[in-house]
Amino acid sequence: MGITSELRPDGIRVVTMEHPPVNALTVQGWFDVAAALDEAGRDHDTHVVVLRAEGRGFNAGVDIKEMQQTSGFDALIGANKGCFAAFRAVYECAVPVIAAVHGFCLGGGIGLVGNADCIVASDDAYFGVPEVDRGALGAATHLARMVPPHLMRTLYFTGRTITAADLVPHGSVLEVVPGDRLDETALAIAAEIAAKDTRVIRAAKEALNGIDPVDVNKSYRFEQGFTFELNLAGVADELRDDFVRKQ
Asked: Which Gene Ontology BP terms does the record give (predicted)?
C-alpha cells in the first residue's frame, strides 16, 4: 500500500496510489506522490509515466479525518504544501504523465489529473471538486483545464460531479473504456510515446508547459490563500467536523 513506482523495460513508469478505503491521501501521501513523479522525471530511462490507483476510486482528495484529528494547523499546512508539491510534480515532470482514472476523482484528484498531459478513464469514472462543502477552496485551476469557464464555475459552486463520458466532448478525457481495459488502454497510449526519442519528448513537454496561458503553480497557490482565510475564520473547521461526523 502507499505510493509505488515501477519502471517497465519499455520505458513506461507506472506510479500507483493505494490508500484504503477511498484513496484520500494523508499529508505524507501527497509528498510521496510528488517524490515518485520527481524521481521519474530525473530518470532518463523513464520515457512516460502512467499515474493510476488501486481500490474503489482514483482519488478522494485530502484525508480530512487526519486533519481533524491533528491539533493546531500542522495538518492543514502540510496538506496544502503536499498537494501543491504533488500537483506541481505532475505538471513539471520532465516526461508526459497519463492519468488512468477509475471510479471517483474528487478534490485533490482533480489537481492531479488536471495537471496531467493525457487522461483516460473507465466508464464508471466521475470527477468533481466538493471543496466548498468542506470549507476549503482549491483545484479550480485544474478543473479549468478540463471544462469551459462557465461549466467550471457551475461545477465548483454546486459541488456537482461530471462523468468521464461527458468530458470526452470537451477534449479533456481522451477515451472512456470498460474498467477491465483501463490499464491496457493507458499503457497502449504510453507505449506510443515511449517509442519516440525521449530527448525530443522531454523537450516537447518543457516547450508545451512554456506556452501555457496560465501559470498553474501560481494560480493554485493563490486559491490556497483563501483556504487559509476560511480556516482562520473558523468556517472550515465547522464544515470539516460536520463531514467527519457524517462518515
From this structure: fatty acid beta-oxidation
pLDDT digits (tens, 9 = 90+) for 177-220: 999 999 999 999 999 999 999 999 999 999 999 999 999 999 99
Q: How far is CA 55 from the centre of its chain?
A: 16
What are the domain boundaries of the chain? 2-181+197-246
User: Which triple of cell numbers denotes residue 116?
Assistant: 496531467
What are the helix and strand counts (H, E) for the chain?
Answer: 11, 9
CB 133 within 8 A of CB 230: no
108 DSSP 8-state letter: H
The predicted model scores a pTM of 0.95
Name which of 169, 202, 165, 179 is nearest 100 in CA terms.
179
Q: Which of 13, 12, 16, 11 is nearest to 1 (CA)?
A: 16
Residue type, 153: R
CATH 3.40.30.10 fits 2-181+197-246, yes or no: no
DSSP structural state of residue 181: G
